[in-house]
């Protein structure tokens, strides 16, 4: 009893010396010894013009670098003392990232199926947060799709809970969407032009459309292999009045009009050649309407132009920059930064789209 009292007193004395908390700077991680400027796609050989450069990766607390403060000596003493007594806490890192989104302030949200939570990288505040509550009573089990809505709201699809969690800007749960109407929701996309929320219901083989009040407005598609039909749809993207649906087990991406719901055509098809698909997952579109599809079976990111013509691949199985191991989701921010959830490598890789040239306008 006396020993525990002395231990508590020592902790209080040491912590009382640390008046200034450590600050942290947010940085994209990079494998030691790797020069990101040499990681270009295409590589720039044979007269090719590079279109993408590797920027780094997100893993978790490792992306926040603590700076020295005035009370550094006191903090070091505290750290050494607590390390001896209770051991050093390991950094919080992602396990199986699935999908993400980036808001206007630069906060990056990543769903993590392995951790059952949403990682929130707030670079301006220098803080990493993890959100675990899906509703007032339930925690996330398997969060996958994520989308950002009006008033800072965040929508997260959890197939195990069979609902879309609705959270405020600080991660506090609001009323869920689709409870009792969804079987296994995975992908999700928000269309700001008409305030609609698109949810791919993988278990029902369709896409359900909700308004902001959570009312089910309509359903798109049925199970099948024909145009406008689905076989386990997963990820979604909305861009310029187009809805992109990854029709995973039909090995294609289907495109629809968000204005009419009409089917507009496919992106790629099943096959083993470059540009063809086996098990596609994430889909996204950049500011020049290039279309990105994650081909999880071949561990690649495939890039097509606005007409669906194949341009180039990035990736292949591996752990280095630009390589993937069972990648999942993809999203693109307002600066045309391309984020790929590299699931089994427990990271998100970040690339910068450098833009096309004038000749690319007619691609």
Shape: globular
Percent in strands: 35-45%
Describe the strand arrangement of the main beta sheet, using strand numbers: 2-3-26-25-24
Instruction: Tally the beta strands.
Output: 26
Q: DSSP helix count?
A: 2
Helix content: under 10%
Could you tell me how far the N terminus lies from the C terminus, measured between alpha carbons in angstroms?
77 Å
Helix-and-strand structural type:
mainly beta
Task: Give the biggest beta sheet.
Answer: 5 strands, antiparallel
Low-confidence stretches: 1-21
Computed over alpha carbons, the radius of gyration is 22 Å
Mean pLDDT: 89
Structure summary:
This protein is mostly beta strands. The chain is 9% helix and 38% strand. It is globular and about 65 Å long.
Describe the structure.
The protein is globular, with a radius of gyration of 22 Å. 37% of the residues are buried. The chain is mainly beta. It has helices at residues 2-17, 72-86; strands at 24-26, 40-41, 52-58, 64-66, 97-102, 108-112, 117-122, 127-131, 146-148, 154-158, 163-167, 185-191, 196-201, 206-210, 216-220, 233-239, 242-247, 252-257, 263-267, 280-285, 291-295, 300-304, 310-315, 327-332, 337-342, 347-353. The chain has a five-stranded antiparallel sheet, with no helix packed on it. It has a four-stranded antiparallel sheet with strand order 5-6-7-8, with no helix packed on it. Strands 12-13-14-15 form a four-stranded antiparallel sheet, with no helix packed on it. Helix 1 runs antiparallel to helix 2. Helices cover 9% and strands 38% of the residues. The longest helix is centred in the first third of the chain and has 16 residues, at 2-17. It has two helices and 26 strands.
